[in-house]
Design brief:
The protein is mainly β. The chain is built from two helices and 14 strands; from the N terminus they run ββββββββββαβαβββ.
Length: about 300
């Protein structure tokens, strides 16, 4: 069969007439788009159980499971039990991008608490390869091989956002890289990241610096022992009285010169260090809202 299976969604809700009563016996006819050439639909996602064409609604106005070929697209005609046309849609199908066809393996946000029929929540659980054969054909063991024989795993999207694979289409955009984020952006199903900023350090550059000293100078007062008396002078001037063996006294005057300390202070660094940051105290979370993530299985509904 060309392409992959997609469920035709609309007939899985009630089909009612203008008075609100179910259209028991209503007819859904399927054609190749733009033609009146009948085109097959199937009752299973594996495309092994053909539906009649047209598909006839039951007493509740429902048509059962209808799966479409991936290509070509369809023209769909709804008629009542008497064959009177009610509406038509053309084109319908995955490649046409028209609502009503959902590819198996599609993942979307869901605001409800429980997954609707045909969908499963994505929390990494393992499910049956046989029961969900179409989904297994679509995603395989990308998200986990289960027991390796009878089961496989769904994506685990608990607390995770999703990004487009960085090399989608064959050429890497380098928006998500292992070097920058720790996530392998070119691997389908790769996961990683954290709500906390990664640990990192901040370098300090201090080439050293000098500390200046200002010394305007000061006086030194001489003192030569008990035989040399130096009264307090002014302006650095001293008067000395020498006591001799007789009655002779001599007075001498002198002047001391100012002197600096000769002290110098060498260059020094600050000794400052900055510790590692982002080890669990730095939040890395954008504004967000929590919704369920569901995946379409093509089973049930």
């Amino acid at each position: 069969m060309p392409g992959s299976a997609a469920r035709f969604v609309w007939p899985n809700v009630f089909s009612v007439d203008a008075t609100g009563l179910p259209r028991a016996g209503a007819q859904l006819s399927f054609y190749q788009t733009g033609t009146t050439t009948p085109q097959a639909t199937y009752a299973d996602a594996g495309l092994t159980i053909p539906n009649p064409n047209p598909v006839i609604a039951d007493s509740s106005g429902q048509f059962g499971n209808i799966f479409l070929l991936g290509a070509p697209d369809y023209a769909v005609v709804l008629a009542d039990a008497n064959g009177n046309q009610v509406w038509t849609m053309d084109p319908v199908g995955a490649s046409a991008g028209v609502a009503g066809a959902v590819p198996v393996g599609a993942v979307c946000d869901f605001a409800g608490a429980a997954a609707p029929p045909g969908w499963l929540l994505c929390y990494g659980q393992t499910i049956s390869r046989a029961t969900y054969a179409a989904l297994f054909a679509a995603i395989g063991t990308i998200f986990g091989a289960g027991d390796g024989v009878t089961s496989f795993a769904l994506p685990d999207l608990r607390g995770r956002a999703s990004f487009g694979v960085d090399n989608m289409g064959g050429s890497a955009a380098n928006q998500v890289t292992m070097a920058g984020s720790g996530v392998n952006g070119v691997q389908l199903g790769a996961a990683g990241g954290s709500q906390m900023a990664a640990a990192h350090s901040h370098a300090v550059a201090d080439p050293g610096h000098s500390h200046a000293i200002t010394d305007p100078g000061h006086d030194h007062k001489p003192n030569h022992g008990s035989g040399f008396v130096v009264p307090q002078g002014s302006g650095g001037e001293i008067s000395a009285i020498f006591a001799g063996g007789g009655d002779v006294e001599e007075t001498a005057t002198g002047q001391t010169t100012p002197s600096g300390t000769g002290v110098t202070i060498g260059p020094g660094t600050t000794g400052i260090s900055i510790s590692t940051a982002g080890s669990g105290n730095s939040q890395n979370m954008p504004p967000a809202m929590m919704l369920n993530k569901i995946i379409y299985t093509g089973v049930g509904g």
